[in-house]
């Protein structure tokens, strides 16, 4: 559905994105993850036909981004990372404006606007001014406008950024619903864990390079094979830490205060034995858990070549 080949973008001497190739199949919910400045928006803007590549090509829904941008625009709903300013415009007018821009037939507009307002739970805000909406509602409205022409592909640039946890959950639920409606979705984020439970596949980009991509379970399995454990002690950690250091399966141990984090190179049975020995009363163990990988951990592993 989305096929990027050798995309590169330079601003003067600065290379923002380097030789990026990526395929996203129909029906996928692809999470495009990387820190601020990694090159996500640059790639997304190229796909949305808003930016000229230094080199490379891409097709969206079978249309070339470079040669047939109009067909691409009809195929996508694009949500930029900035909302923009819409002074004096009401919610329904905002959606009507985009319906006209996308050449939705006049006879269908009212019903479509009603439907997307319903889907995004904004019906009660129909006549409110856009500028008076909360950030979460603005994000939902922006998502609503990507749907008015019923495109098969959605390209969403950081739709959950700056939202409170409840609004973020709502965005996730919506993404799932849109996927169940058959949309192919590319969504960017600078937070790995934010997307992990909704995406079917992810790509990790750093400093303009796509470091890793694939189905989420495969990527997580790779990351998890370098399993990290975290333990906490109720009292002074010395006894526990020295027990951990004596275990040859424990690597790269870092002890901070009453906490210790380490890579564990054993299987579940070995981890169980380790847990049992840590449960001796003099060690004062209060917690023993898998440490959820953070984006930083993934970057460390990827850049150290531990995961490819
Ligand atoms: P992300 O979306 O991952 O935060 P961007 O794609 O916006 O990253 O930016 C990638 C890099 O390109 C950043 O270092 C940014 O400063 C730079 N960049 C983006 N747009 C321009 C521009 N118009 N001129 C010069 N540099 C730019």
Structure description:
The protein has helices at 40-47, 69-75, 91-101, 106-119, 135-145, 165-180, 192-196, 216-225, 238-245, 268-278, 295-303, and strands spanning 2-11, 14-24, 29-33, 55-60, 63-64, 76-79, 153-156, 184-189, 201-206, 209-215, 228-233, 250-256, 259-264, 285-290. The chain is an alpha/beta fold and 308 residues long. Strands 6-7-8-3-9-10 form a six-stranded mixed beta sheet, sandwiched between helices. It has a four-stranded antiparallel beta sheet with strand order 2-1-4-5, covered by helices on one side. Helix 6 (165-180) links the parallel strand 7 and strand 8. Helix 3 (91-101) crosses helix 4 (106-119). The radius of gyration is 23 Å and the shape is elongated. The site of adenosine-5'-diphosphate has 11 residues, from strand 2 and helix 1. Adenosine-5'-diphosphate is lined by residues 11, 14, 16, 34, 36-42.
